[in-house]
């Protein structure tokens, strides 16, 4: 499966989706499956709007995460409109008790990404430990990093 997502930074932190499922709370970077005929960047923009309610400009690919049979592509994004938290994708109305679990747009403070169980862990770990995540991501734009997550 091919997925596309974003890394969106603001003064509030890193945009994430809080998931509550099977009694566990964890966070994921916004994104989802690439649909037929859609480019990776188009999928990342669409999924961001569906999940966060935000329109974004894609600045470039920063990370590729190989996880089992899934390849996940993450793009550095810049907010250009919309309302954070107003995502209306089909998964956004689900409850924690549902089979899919709940989805909620949140900002996570940089420096607490690992404590909040942000996935994918390799990207969270690099962002969490960077003195300035924006500088780190600019470097990744020049040469996207590739992680194999176990």
UniProtKB/TrEMBL annotation:
<keyword id="KW-0378">Hydrolase</keyword>
<protein>
    <submittedName>
        <fullName>NUDIX domain-containing protein</fullName>
    </submittedName>
</protein>
<feature type="domain" description="Nudix hydrolase">
    <location>
        <begin position="1"/>
        <end position="131"/>
    </location>
</feature>
<dbReference type="InterPro" id="IPR020084">
    <property type="entry name" value="NUDIX_hydrolase_CS"/>
</dbReference>
<comment type="similarity">
    <text>Belongs to the Nudix hydrolase family.</text>
</comment>
<dbReference type="InterPro" id="IPR000086">
    <property type="entry name" value="NUDIX_hydrolase_dom"/>
</dbReference>
<dbReference type="Pfam" id="PF00293">
    <property type="entry name" value="NUDIX"/>
</dbReference>
<dbReference type="InterPro" id="IPR015797">
    <property type="entry name" value="NUDIX_hydrolase-like_dom_sf"/>
</dbReference>
<dbReference type="GO" id="GO:0016787">
    <property type="term" value="F:hydrolase activity"/>
</dbReference>
<dbReference type="InterPro" id="IPR020476">
    <property type="entry name" value="Nudix_hydrolase"/>
</dbReference>
């Amino acid at each position: 499966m091919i997925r596309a997502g974003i890394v969106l930074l603001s003064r509030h932190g890193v945009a994430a989706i809080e998931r509550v499922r099977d009694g566990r709370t964890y966070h994921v970077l916004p994104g989802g499956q690439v649909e037929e005929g859609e480019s990776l960047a188009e999928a990342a923009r669409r999924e961001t709007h569906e999940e966060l309610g935000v329109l974004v400009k894609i600045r470039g690919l920063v990370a590729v995460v190989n996880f089992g049979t899934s390849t996940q592509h993450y793009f550095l994004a810049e907010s250009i409109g919309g309302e954070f938290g107003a995502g209306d994708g089909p998964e956004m109305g689900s409850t924690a008790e549902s089979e899919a679990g709940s989805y909620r747009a949140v900002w996570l403070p940089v420096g607490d990404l690992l404590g909040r169980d942000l996935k994918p862990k390799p990207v969270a770990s690099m962002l969490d430990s960077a003195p300035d995540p924006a500088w780190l991501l600019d470097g990744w734009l020049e040469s996207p990093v590739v992680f194999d997550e176990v």
